Amino acid sequence: MSIKAVIFDMDGTLLDTEKLLSECLIEAASDEGWTLEWDTVVNCIGTTFDETERIVMKAMGSDFPYGKVRNKGIEKFKKYVKKRGLPFKNGAHRLLDCLDAEGLPFGIATTTERKEVYEILSFVGILNRFSTIVCGDEVKNSKPHPEIYEKAAGNLGISADEALVFEDSSHGISSASNAGARVVWVPDLQNVPDDVRSKCYDEIGSLDAVCDKLGELVG
Questions:
Q1: Collapsed DSSP state (helix, strand, coil) of residue 3
Q2: N or C end: fewer C-beta atoms under 10 angstroms in the chain?
Q3: pTM for the complete prediction?
Q4: Is residue 184 classed as helix, strand or coil in its secondary structure?
Q5: How far does Cα 215 stand from its chain's mean position?
Q6: What is the distance between the alpha carbons of residues 124 and 86, in angstroms, rounded to a whole number?
Q7: How high is the pLDDT of residue 1?
Q8: Domain range for residue 109?
Q9: How many domains does the chain have?
């Protein structure tokens, strides 16, 4: 099946948000007198807000002030971004330009809620580059369920098995694979287990390197 469109995850795939947000949450917990472990935060990557809360509360215990820490962490994140900007993943701009040159439409499928997605993409100046954006609060079933990728593919006028997907998390890879898409893992913070990695068409170290293999990936 030839590829007719491309779908990106956003956080940790297109934008280098995961490390910064994780650090902000850990700092916010420290401000409240708690030690939130790095591994606990990384385990939340690719999950919904509700799932994230369950993971953190299981690790930290029922007395942990999750809501306060989360809100404080997000505020720290926003202040940092307003002051210093938000970095793209290596090669993101180049890859979007390559896709335009190939005439391949592209979209986003992210568990992040629409309000935040639009704020972030507007802030970094790429909101209008995407043919579709499907967010976590617009589907009933979050990743690893295939719904979000099926919906994004449908919005692009294709079936999911005609989509090339770039993902960085276990849940994201499983979601795209369950939808029937061709999945490329672009590693970020989360270590993806072998059984999930086996679902990937390829593993490529950066979006910049993807550009050099694009013809092979979409053929």
A1: coil
A2: C
A3: 0.92
A4: strand
A5: 23
A6: 7
A7: 65
A8: 5-16+88-218
A9: 2
Residue 94 sits in the same domain as residue 72:
no
Same-domain check for residues 162 and 195: yes
Residue linked to tokens 């993807």: 210
| Domain harbouring 9, CATH code | 3.40.50.1000
Which of 84, 103, 130 finishes a domain? 84
Residue 68 DSSP one-character state: H
Whether 127 contacts 118, CB under 8 Å: yes
Burial class of residue 18 (count of CB atoms within 10 Å of its CB; 0-12, 13-18, 19+): buried
| Residue 169 shares a structural domain with residue 121 | yes
Look at the block and give the residue holding tokens 């790095």. Answer: 38
For the chain, what is the radius of gyration of the CA atoms? Answer: 17
Boundary (domain end) residue, out of 32, 56, 84: 84
Q: What is the DSSP code string of 49-64?
A: HHHHHHHHHHHH-TTS
Residues 96 and 180 occupy one common structural domain: yes
pLDDT tens per residue across span 150-208: 999 999 999 999 999 999 999 999 999 999 999 999 999 999 999 999 999 999 999 99
Both structure tokens of 207: 């979006």
For a pLDDT cut of 70, what percent of the chain falls above it?
100
Specify whether 140 is located in the same domain as 193: yes
Percent of the chain with pLDDT over 90: 91
Q: Are residues 11 and 23 in the same domain?
A: no
